[in-house]
Every structure is written in structure tokens, then in C-alpha cells.
Amino acid sequence: MRKSVIIRRVCFFDCPQVWILRRYRDYSLAESWYGRIFIKTYYVLSPKLIKRFGERKWFKESCKIVLDRMVSILQEQGYEDTAYKDRVW
């Protein structure tokens, strides 16, 4: 099981917004070498950021603002918000 990551822990847990972001990760970011580096970096840094700032209100609010905007953009681009199971690599 993965350690807690920002998106799940701070902002959304498992819901339509997370499903949109997972689809973006799996079908857009993961298709390029720089996207895969971003994903790996995110999973390395995210637990550390959660440990240090996860309970701080400013951190949660900042993450939520950024992620809400990102989800909105992805929805406009056609990413679905239906239930999604992570792609197996």
C-alpha cells in the first residue's frame, strides 16, 4: 500500500475528483518520460510534505484550490469522473 499522498489525504480521498486525476496520471502523464519522472517525484515527496504540513490549514486550503482548478480544466478536456481503478504498470 502506498503511503499517504497529498491528493488523497489532504483534499479528496476517493471520489470523482480523484478518479479524474488518476485518469490524467495514467493516460497522459505516464505516456511521457518527463510525466513518469513527475509521478515518481510526486510519490517520493508527497508523504514527506504530508508529514510536515499535512495538518496545517494553509496547506490543505492551498492544495484544494490548486487541485480544484486542475480538476475543472481536466473535466473541460473530457476526463471522466466515473469510478476508476488504477492502471496496472
Question: If helices are DSSP runs of H or I spanning 4 or more residues, what is the number of helices?
Answer: 4
The helix-strand sequence is HHHH
Fraction of residues in helices?
55-70%
Kindly, what is the distance between the CA atoms of the first and last residues, rounded to a whole number of angstroms? 15 Å
Structural shape: globular
Helix vs. strand class: mainly alpha
Radius of gyration: 13 Å
Uncertain stretches of 5 or more adjacent residues: none
Proportion of residues in extended strands: under 5%
Mean pLDDT: 87
Reported for the largest beta sheet, the result is: none
Quantity of strands, as a count:
0
Explain what the structure shows.
The protein is 67% helix and 0% strand. It is globular and about 30 Å long. The chain has helices at residues 6-12, 16-27, 33-53, 57-76. It is mainly alpha-helical. The chain has 4 helices and no strands. The two termini are 15 Å apart.
Based on the model shown, name its key terms:
about 90 residues, mainly alpha, 4 helices, about 0% strand
